[in-house]
Amino acid sequence: MIVRQFISWVRTAPAGERADATRSLARAWLISNLSEDDRAAAEGALLMLLDDPSPLVRQAMAEVFARSVDAPPAIVQALSLDQASVALPVLEYSPLLIDADLVDLVATGNSDVQCAIARRRNLPSSVSAAIAEVGSPASALELIENPQALLAPFSWHRIVERHGHLAAIRESMLALDDLPAATRLALVAKLSDTLAQFVVARQWLSADRAERIVTDARDRSAVNVATRSRGEDMQGLVGHLRATGQLSAGLILRALLSGNLELFDQALAELSGLPQSRVAALLYDRGGASVTALLARAGLPESTFPAFQAALEATHEIGFVGTVGGAARLRRRMVERVLTRCETDEDVSEPLLILLRRFATESAREEARVFCDELVADEIEIESGHQRIAA
Questions:
Q1: Tally of structural domains, the chain
Q2: N or C: lower Cβ tally within 10 Å for the chain?
Q3: 2-10 vs 36-49: helix axis angle to the nearest 10?
């Protein structure tokens, strides 16, 4: 009886009053002990109100039903397809929407719709993949900042491909501790390309000069990222480097001269097709013939073999680097030893000597920078000690 009176009244009531009444009816449907007849009548009235010309009425329903697992599925489905101001609470919170619904809504909805879905708790990888593939930059940012969203590696890469040129996307992704190494490196490459295009457009550098700087920066970044990568993450990084044409002799030599032996081993395993354990055995038995055979199988230029052999000999003599930062920086003693060896070898190509001279300059500057930082730190410590004594 009450529901019939409501239906009669609601046809002529003002929009605001209809919205309030609809909110009350929806709550009653959820929490009141209605008879079966009244419950069916109430659901019928709510279904009728989906056609109400005022969005305020449908918003009232959406606010009540958005988080409820007991809401009428047909009404929730209809509300999810309504205009954004009505649908957003349902899209963000409703447990009744299945993954297929959400994927379809991402594909057909606007940025607001995509953002609401990207904020959902326990967002499955299939929906995350849809947002990565077709979502707006704003929805990608919401996805990145949602700690409960599951993203497959290919989804991370797709976000980088589509939105990696945007500073907000890059900064948000790089702040993540568990970001895959390959994705982190792809972001660095996006930034390098953006900066290179900018300086070339401004005519501050020639295109060739900018390209060389970008290549050096990418190689340094690859070694730096690799210092924090292990196991499958390292394999993914090396696979990314190969797929993008960055797994060059110069990068592999940089890894060795930096003391990053895990990256060096994994790179040769990737290129040679041999297991990493077999590569390690061939490299560190100190046999020149086995090293040469491995480098040849990996497809590295023969002109680089003397540099690799000299670097491996220096590694055996000098030992390993014990810190993360140390494994990312070129070691000056190793670089200078390899350069001296190669300068007296007639088979070494001029491009390799040029590369080694750049490495020598870079390692000297890095060593000087670290030395100066340590001096400043010591001075600050001394001043702090004097202040403590004076106090």
A1: 2
A2: C
A3: 10
Integer CA distances (angstroms), 326 to 190, 231, 320, 331, in order: 26, 20, 9, 8
Q: Which of 67, 97, 127 is the last residue of a domain?
A: 97
Q: What is the DSSP letter of 77?
A: H
Domain of 282?
248-391
Contact present, 208 and 183 (Cβ < 8 Å): no
Does a structural domain hold residue 188? no
Q: What is the pLDDT of residues 377-391, one digit of tens each?
A: 777 777 776 666 665
Cβ(258)–Cβ(264) below 8 Å = no
Q: Is 130 within a domain?
A: no
145-178 pLDDT, tens per residue? 999 999 998 899 899 999 988 889 989 998 888 8
Contact 311, 253 (CB under 8 A): yes
For 173, residues 6+ apart whose C-beta sits below 8 A from its C-beta are 144, 156, 159, 160, 179, 183, 184, 187
Any domain includes 153? no
Asked, for residue 106, whether it belongs to a domain, the answer is no
Using DSSP's 3-state secondary structure scheme, residue 334 falls into helix
What is residue 294's three-state secondary structure?
Answer: helix
How far is it between the farthest Cα atoms of the chain? 103
Question: How far apart are alpha carbons 387 and 377 in whole angstroms?
Answer: 15
Helix, coil or strand: residue 22? helix
Give the number of other CB atoms < 10 A from CB of residue 22: 24
What number of residues does the chain have? 391
- Structure tokens that stand for 188 in this block: 């660095």
B/e letters for 130-157, b = 16+ CB within 10 Å, e = fewer, are bbbbbbbebbbbbbbebeebebeeebbb
Residues 192, 87: Cα–Cα separation, whole Å = 40
Q: What is the pTM of this model?
A: 0.72
Place of tokens 């110069």: 250
Residue environment code for 279-316, b if the CB has 16+ CB neighbours within 10 A, otherwise e: bbebbeeeeeeebbebbeebebeebbbbbbbbbbbbbe
Residue type, 19: A
Distance CA 49, CA 114 (A): 26
CA atoms of 285 and 195, how far apart (whole Å): 44
CA pair distance 159, 59, nearest whole angstrom: 32
Single out the residue in 72, 97, 122 at which a domain terminates. 97
